[in-house]
Hints:
The structure holds 2 protein chains of 2 kinds. Chain A folds into 2 domains: about 25-145, no CATH class; about 155-300, no CATH class. Chain A is mostly helical. Chain A contains 13 helices and 3 strands; from the N terminus they run ααααααααααβββααα. Chain A has a 3-stranded antiparallel sheet, with helices on one face. In chain A, α6 packs antiparallel against α7 and α12 (about 230-260) packs antiparallel against α13. In chain A, a hairpin with a 2-residue loop joins β1 and β2 (about 190). The termini of chain B are far apart. Chains A and B meet through α3, α6, α7 and α10 of A and α1, α2, α3 and α4 of B. Chain A: It is a multi-pass membrane protein. Chain A: Keywords: Cell membrane, Hydrolase, Membrane, Protease, Transmembrane, Transmembrane helix. Chain A: It is found in: Cell membrane.
Amino acid sequence: MPYAVDSAAKVANPEPPPTSLSGAKARLEWLPYASIALLLAVLYYRVAIKLVYDWSTLPDYSHGFLVPFFVAFLIWDKRKVLQSTPIRQSWLGVPLVVFSLAVLILGIYGVELFTSRMSFIFLMAGLIWTFFGWAMVRALRFPLLVLVLAIPFPAIVFNQITFPLQLLASRIASDILPLLGVPTLHEGNVIELPVMKLEVAEACSGIRSLMSLFTLSVFYGYFLEHTTRRRVILALASIPIAVTANVARIVGTGLCVQYWDPEKALGFFHEFSGWVMFVISLACLYLVHRAMRLISPEKAQTT
Amino acid sequence: MKSPRFWLVILLLAATAFVLQTRGDADYVPASQPLNQMPEQLDGLTAQDIPLTDDTLAVLGKGDFLNRIYVGPLTSTNSHAIPISLFIGYFPSQRTGQTMHSPQNCLPGAGWTFDSQRYVSFQDINGKNYRVGEYVISNGEIKQFVIYWYQAHGRSIPNEYKAKLYMIADAIRMNRTDGALVRVITQVLPSESLESARERATQFTQQMAPNLPRFIPD
């Protein structure tokens, strides 16, 4: 239950140090939070179990495990800002809470995983708004948005973006391979080499690892850049980088098949494509980052 | 914190928990026959099963699949000599988030481009109405005529987004998320018009469709 811990931390964190409270009252201070956290756990335990299962089985979403930790870090990092944020309880958060719960019920009854998972983020925003005020929601907007990265997008929509990118990567790879002495025939995402076909079972899939890369570039931008604009550019750079990394993977596989042992090559590449891709992508991110600094050097500024 | 707001939120969360507890996390899956019992003889054609590779099955997910070519007698001069491919993928439950692969991705992924598409209605030999998508796809010189649609709970839907929305609605109304994709393909020979290929595919589909409810429950 990373979420329950997470949410409890989120609700409990912004609490200012109690001033001049008697011991008994201080002991009861956590009770309301605990009861809300408990109810959240009851509401979301099935959703959470399935989500964690998806992180562990979907190759595109293995980064989901990192997101709760990153969010916890973001909140800890902002602790000073959060402590100085004035707490103003508000009735205005209640409609958002009601809306979120309606979305959750719809998602569970309609067996739409994305809907039921997204409702958690709306609900968090609604609860924070109700008990801590709109200023606190604003202060926590980035961590709340980062949570979205851990939720697998509905394939039907996501494929509209990833599938053309995969076709593009296949086309570029099949244009590069002949230049390196590997004759290819390509049909869509299936690339035919003299000895074998590549990516046959992957023909229907969109580009892999786009979401992991996007998440990686959001983390990278957060730690190494200081303006929103630059962070957005870095995050968007993950799209061409994903294509580049996939081209590298296909070209690498093609070269191994041609100049090495086909069987070994495939095994090796499936085994290591994750790591290889990760390193290549990180290198590309670094290059984009350097290029950005060259084009417009950073001005001295405070965040 | 111990304000009316707090108690209202507690009440809302508890009420939602109660509403969700009354709903199980299993679908109702009606009984259906395995797809391999689809008649071997249809419209004067004979079936030849094409086994799907393990890789393909792994990609397709948990379901029952039929992949066949129906061929006519070899030495005939009529259009029956031209084979017709039938693919059906039936998913008893889509609760786990696995979705049917749309031909809109799989065909381009295998190198086919969509030249034209339109939604039409036809009636099978028993007069039952079907709403389907008709597509012409090509790969280099080769042209194929494709008919496909999503079939669930007695409803035929050509559009995948609509099919998804109906899936959600039916999950709420009947606690069912079963559904199928039905796809018929025949080649458009260089010597024939598009219309004659369309005729062939449609006629086959009209003969085949009455069998569907046995495999894809209404």
